[in-house]
Amino acid sequence: TKVTGFYIYRGFVKRILVLIDGLNLWHALNAQHRGLANVDLTALVSRLVNRNSEVLVGILYFSALANHLDGPDIQAQAAYFNQLQTNNIRVQLGRFQRGARICSYCGRSSVTHQEKETDVAIATALVAGAYENSYDKVLLFSADTDLIPAVRLVKTKFADKEIKLVSTVSYLRPVHVTLGRLCDGQIRLTRELLAPHLPLI
Q1: N or C: which end of the chain has fewer CB atoms below 10 A?
Q2: Residues in Cβ contact with 52 at an 8 Å cutoff, skipping those fewer than 6 apart
Q3: CA-based nearest residue to 98, from 88, 108, 90, 110
């Protein structure tokens, strides 16, 4: 059986689904070191999957098209999404919602844009996949506590489903006692782990 470009041999290997919170991952990598966000996600995921006992059934990348940015930035983001899809990564886009923020010190109002629908989309994929029995293990590239209810539901209803958090140390540390405790371990995205999958400059 072939799913999203990867072959599945049921009964012999563990089926791995990868869910990537694009904006969360981007901020985590940039906070660690500028430039790490350019990592080749397909190559990185392939490294994290044990080819002797696991098989990749899909990589889903969740983000939103930043229509509020300047033209060149929007074009660059769209090109990046197209590149992901070329590399067998399915991109699911939400939206940015315009809002206002008032400074607590000066009282001035500023325009903000907040990503919407991403957390719900990731949670839906996580829960639906468990009920459909389309995966055995999830690599969850996020450290967003909004995903706690979905993770808790899967771990409660499907104890055999494995969920591992994947992010940088600085992003995993704050959620260790909340989201981290619900999951089955963490994979820390260190510079050493990412280095082989960064573009040559």
Answers
A1: C
A2: none
A3: 110
Q: Is pLDDT larger for residue 145 or for residue 75?
A: 145
**Measured CA distances, 97 to 79, 104, 121 (Å):** 22, 22, 16
Listed in order, strand segments (DSSP E) in the chain are 2-3, 6-7, 14-21, 54-64, 89-102, 109-116, 137-141, 162-167, 186-188
Angle, CA of 134, 137 and 141, to the nearest 5°: 110
Residue burial 103-135, b: 16+ Cβ < 10 Å; e: rest: eeeeeeeeeeeebebbbebbbebbbebbeeeeb
In order, the DSSP letters of 3-51 are: ETTEE--TTTSEEEEEEEEHHHHHHHHHHH-TTGGG--HHHHHHHHS-T
What mean pLDDT is predicted for residues 165-176?
A: 95
pTM of the model: 0.81
Which whole-number Å values give the CA distances from 38 to 29, 34, 133, 158, 194, in the listed order?
9, 9, 32, 35, 10
Q: Which of 5-9, 16-20, 82-86 has the lowest mean pLDDT?
A: 5-9
Residues 84, 91 contacting (CB under 8 angstroms): yes
CB neighbours of 86 closer than 8 A, spacing ≥ 6? Answer: none
Per-residue confidence band for 11, with pLDDT thresholds at 50, 70 and 90:
low
Q: Does residue 140 have a pLDDT over 50?
A: yes
